[in-house]
Design brief:
The protein has helices at about 15-35, 50-55, 85-90, 100-105, 110-120, 135-140, 140-155, 180-195, 215-220, 235-245; strands spanning about 5-10, 40-45, 60-65, 95, 125-130, 160-165, 205-210, 225-230. By secondary structure, it is of the alpha/beta class. Strand 3, helix 3 and strand 4 form a beta-alpha-beta unit. Helix 1 runs parallel beside helix 2 and helix 9 packs parallel to helix 10. It binds phosphoenolpyruvate.
């Protein structure tokens, strides 16, 4: 399976900026495609830009995703977005359980689990984020925390993507060492096999946390790394595409 390089644009991008970024990624991916880009590309703009970006990227190999969805398809939920709405706007993927949602919106594993079911029912591929805080790592609890998040967030039969994003590495410029990434991705693989059987042995496990062009090649070469989830560096087409060029066919 090819590595997946996914950009999380977070709460960035008015119409003109989002369109310009999408067009640069489109142009770069087409050029790189001819030279054999080894990975799959995905961009996750804010809700308001999904349909614009999806229209600009239609017919290319760059996928489009949302950054969250509600656990139910529709209803009296002011300010929320249902998974069928994301699909209708042109998304094929959705990031769920990002640490900023878990922290800022107090999302629990049970809620993420319900959102995964809603996403799958709407035909979206979920990317479920897990990761420990700095205090949890310092006290050696990272495997317990991540193992608990996986068990609580992934429903039976889950067949999406998991992203390991240590909270202390997100937007901080700090990255996990290659040894730490190898150990955690190995642990996640083992846990996915136990929870999900054969499908857990092959699903992509992305690394996220201050991935940049300068560290992408070494992080993407670590065993069991099936791609990267990228925040800050995904807002510059040049950096996002440089990271993508560091990917390999896993
Ligand atoms: C993220 O928010 O998913 C992320 C990995 O951010 P950054 O690349 O900026 O650390």
């Amino acid at each position: 399976m090819r590595q997946l390089i996914a950009g999380n644009w977070k709460m960035h991008g008015l119409g003109a900026e989002a369109a310009a970024l999408a067009l640069l990624i489109k142009a770069g991916s087409i050029r790189a495609g001819a030279a054999g880009l080894a990975c799959e590309l995905l961009v996750c703009p804010p809700f308001t830009q999904i349909s614009n970006v999806a229209a600009l990227l239609a017919g290319t190999a760059v996928g489009v995703g949302g950054q969250d969805c509600h656990a139910t398809a529709q209803g009296a939920h002011t300010g929320d977005i249902g998974a069928p709405m994301l699909r209708d706007a042109g998304a094929g993927w959705v990031i769920l359980g990002h640490s900023e949602r878990r922290q800022n919106h107090r999302e629990t594993d049970a809620l993420v689990h319900a959102k995964v079911l809603a996403a799958v029912a709407a035909g979206l591929i979920p990317i479920v984020c897990v990761g420990e805080t700095e205090a949890e790592r310092v006290s050696g609890q990272q495997n317990d925390v991540v193992g608990g998040q996986l068990a609580g967030s992934l429903p039976d039969g889950f067949a999406g993507v998991v992203a390991y994003e240590p909270v202390w590495a997100i937007g901080t410029g700090k990255t996990a060492t290659e040894d730490d990434v190898a150990a955690m991705h190995g642990f996640i693989r083992q846990t996915l096999r136990r929870l999900l059987g054969d499908v857990g042995g092959t699903m992509r496990i992305l690394y996220g946390g201050s991935v940049r062009p300068a560290n992408a090649v070494s992080l993407l070469a670590v065993a069991e790394v099936g791609g990267a989830l990228i925040g800050g560096a995904s807002l510059k087409a040049e950096d996002f595409l440089a990271i993508a060029r560091g990917a390999r066919a896993a």
